Amino acid sequence: MSCEIIAILRGITPEEASPVAHALVEAGITRIEVPLNSPRPFDSISRMIAAVGDRALVGAGTVLSPEQVARLRGLGAGLVVSPDCNPQVIAAAREAGMVTCPGVMTPTECFAALRAGADALKLFPASLIGPEGLRAMRAVLPEGARVYAVGGVGADNFAQWRAAGADGFGIGSALYKPGLTVEQVAERARELVQAWERSEP
Predict the structure, then answer these.
(1) Catalytic pick among 16, 33, 67, 177
(2) Are 77 and 44 in contact (CB under 8 A)?
């Protein structure tokens, strides 16, 4: 899993789940998130786990409660991404042995998430914070804290963000949005992976 891109598949349907998951993995993206405000998200996640669970880390985004974590655990999901820093969600994910990535925007939220046991930080919305904001945060964050920039990030600014200290990215509409074909998603995925490889600091 060397390409640190999380695919955010907001709006995906269960019927698309398996072919899109296969396309992403074949392109080199092996972290997949289905936001829970998508149509029948648990069905999509279950299908993706069956399709690529041996080759990818599959889970959910917009996870807001321990109850949702428990349901994901029952499916065999391995990733919990949230828009906020909820210590109860982080604790539930940790107890379930899942990777947890809560949303943060300020240094206070970053440290609260890390103290609660977060595996990584979802810097969101990254477009408002900017690479310079992340660079400033990196001066105080613990060494080894993993940060994913999400929101307004794309292939054209991967290098700038990585130079500022981003470990990876969450990519949504630049990769998938309802109405795109599997082939279009696959092409976008390949382009993003190539951009990732070019952006090595």
Answers:
(1) 33
(2) no
Instruction: Return the pLDDT at 107.
Output: 96
3-state secondary structure of 124: coil
Residue pLDDT, tens place only, 42-58: 999 999 999 999 999 99
Query: Catalytic pick from 4, 26, 95, 122?
Result: 122
CATH topology of domain 5-198: TIM Barrel (3.20.20)
3-state secondary structure 5-70: EEEECCCCCHHHHHHHHHHHHHHCCCEEEEECCCCCHHHHHHHHHHHHCCCCEEEEECCCCHHHHH
What is the three-class DSSP state of 128? helix
pLDDT at 200: 85
- pTM score of the predicted model: 0.96
The owner of tokens 């795109």 is 180
Annotated active-site residue 177? The verdict is: no
